[in-house]
Amino acid sequence: MIRRIILGTVLLFCVTPSAFPKFKDDEQKYLDDQFKAILDQMQAMGNQVAALTGQLSEIKQNQALLQNAFLRQQHQLQDLDDMLSSLKVGNEENFSKIRTAVADLRAETDSAVNKLTGQAAAPAAAPPVAAVSTPAAPAPAPSRPPTQGYVTSYDGTNVTIDMGSAQGIQQGAKLAFYKASDPNTRVGVMEVTQVVDAGNSRAMVVTMNPGVKPEFSDIVRVVTE
């Protein structure tokens, strides 16, 4: 019996050292596999972050292009409106001729459409008879419209506008503030705090109607009164 106990003890001491290194190797391989999987996941996340950064940069560039196009369109519409106002006030006779020509062109277009669709053409209105009158005195020159610009960026009550020294803007100048959706109703007043260059200035909101805040493309005009 004692011999069996001694023999079992000897076998146990012989087997244990050989099994321990194997257990350690398996454990190390498991840790290596887990570490490699974590590295792969981090690499994939890095690639996703890089792709999202590229998409964000492209979106910002497209937004800047759209903003510039919108501002150019607003300037062009304002120029057309000023030109029409000058035409109406400064040369009423030419404006009347243009209206008559447009009416004739519309009548010809309607007649052509009616012929194509087989409908009877509506009777054309008789052209207006020009009244004979004595030469009128020259119309007074139209009053110069106030200098107008737009909000290009804003941060709380501080805004940037697309007017500068080229438009005669000076530090301390007062600007009336209008919403783009209602360009005829003043909602606040701003004061120029810095003329950045020929086409840009910074301003600070002085007064503003309740519930109103500056937004991109809002209208600003130099206070003339």
Instruction: Give the strand tally.
Output: 6
User: Biggest sheet, strands in spatial order?
Assistant: 1-2-5-4-3-6
Summed up, the domain count is 3
Terminal Cα span: 121 Å
The helix fraction, in percent, is 40-55%
Strand-residue fraction?
15-25%
What class would the helix/strand composition place it in?
alpha+beta
* Radius of gyration computed on alpha carbons: 40 Å
Description:
The chain is 51% helix and 21% strand. It has 225 residues and is an alpha+beta fold. Strands 1-2-5-4-3-6 form a 6-stranded antiparallel β-barrel.
Task: Reconstruct the topology from this structure.
Layout: H1 2-90, H2 92-117, E1 148-155, E2 158-161, E3 174-179, E4 182-197, E5 200-208, E6 219-222
Antiparallel strand pairs: 1-2, 1-6, 2-5, 3-4, 3-6, 4-5
Key terms:
2 helices, single chain, 225 residues, Thrombin, subunit H, 6 strands, elongated, 6-stranded antiparallel barrel, alpha+beta
Summarize the structure.
The protein has helices spanning 2-90, 92-117, and strands at residues 148-155, 158-161, 174-179, 182-197, 200-208, 219-222. With 225 residues, it is an alpha+beta fold.
